[in-house]
Each structure stands twice: as C-alpha cells, then as structure tokens.
Amino acid sequence: NETKQIEFVSASDVPVKKLFIYSGAAQRFYGYSEYSRADRNYGIQTNKKVKVMLEFKNSKDNNLGIPLPKGKMRVYKEDSDKSLEFVGEDSIEHTPKDEHIRIYLGDAFDIVGERVQKDFRIDSGSRWIDETIEIKLRNHKEESVEVRVVEQLYRWSNWKFIQKSHEYEKKDSSTVEFNVKIPKDSEKIVSYKVHYWWD
What is the largest distance, in Å, between two alpha-carbon atoms of the chain? Predict the structure, then answer.
C-alpha cells in the first residue's frame, strides 16, 4: 500500500526567459454574446496581479529536446551558497520537442497593474461600439522591467483600434499583446480606443 514517485526527466542549465504578464480584465472571455456586446459594465472588473512566468524551448540546444509528458514541472534556482532553492512548480500538457513552454511561478509583489474603462459609446441602430481602456502599470523594483499586457477584445469579432499608445502583436482573432518597458520605480500607461461593429 505505498506510492512511489519517480523523476522522469531532469535538466540543468536550461536557458529561460523571465516574463511578467498582466491580464487586467478580471472576467474570463467565454465567447461573443449580445450581453457582452451591449453591457458597458461587462469585463471592467480589474485584476491587479502581474504574473511571473518562465518561458523556454524544449530543444536539444537547451539540454532538453524530448517529448515531455503531461505533469508537474519543478523549478530550482542556484542560491548564493550554491545550494538549490525551490522557486515554484506548474503543470504542463504533453509537449513535443522544439515547442515553447510557459510555466507560471506566482504573482509579482512589486509590479502592479490597474485596468479602467475610460469611455463607452454604443449605437445599436448603426451597430457599433467605441470603448476606451486605460491600463496603469507601476514598477516598484530597483530595476527596469518589461511587462506583456494581454487584452481580450471581448465585445465582438469585428474590431479595429482607432487610437493606441503602444504597438501591439495580434495573438489570435480576439487577443492582443502590448510589450511595455517600465523604468525602475516608475509608472507607464497603456491606452487604446477600439471600434467594434456587427451586421
């Protein structure tokens, strides 16, 4: 009546990139609906937490390069006295070789986000909405950081930016990502005005 846990894969010296990711809308996106389109209060509840994640490629060059099974992945960091310090763990899906993996380690306590709807206009007869969003990011670290701001454009599938403070990358049909560099102990603001329309 015992259970044994066996380590399947171990890798050291894997080059990783530390990411700070802010997804400010507290409400999850479940698909387009009349409700999400017309209710000005839909999706405006804010989440202040900035996620800390590690990203790496499951490649031979990174001392990996094998199919990784679904399960827990633990991350350790070498301390000043050369001992290993546990940083965090996350579950991953089955991952083939040469694919990228992101591991969630927790929330940053010295980077804070705040997302606010500044304006909302709807014309149901002409079938359009204009919405203005402002995102404040405060970096209390003693070093500059880059935060990836993820925004779900949840009102409708037809959209375009009328105004934007930063360039963005379109991740899929309803998701964009702004990369924002924030100097130490300072604040940056990301803002955009988006126009939605429907038939």
Answer: 68
> What CA–CA distance (Å, rounded) separates 143 from 130?
37
Reported as a pLDDT band with limits 50, 70 and 90, residue 164 is very high
**Is the C-alpha dihedral spanning 124, 155, 168, 117 positive or negative?**
positive
**CA–CA separation, 80 vs 100, rounded Å?**
29
Spatial distance between the Cα atoms of 31 and 52, rounded to a whole number of angstroms: 27
Q: What global pTM score does this model have? A: 0.83
Beta strands in 36-158, from DSSP E residues, in sequence order: 49-57, 71-78, 84-92, 100-123, 128-139, 145-152
**CA dist 180 → 39, 50, 109, 148, 187 (Å):** 29, 13, 18, 6, 11
* 90: nearest Cα among 58, 147, 52: 52
Separation between Cα atoms, residue 33 and residue 47, nearest integer Å? 22
pLDDT tens-digit series, residues 102-150: 999 999 999 999 999 999 999 988 999 999 999 999 999 999 999 999 9
Phi-psi region of 63 (alpha: psi -120 to 50; beta: other; left: phi over 0): left
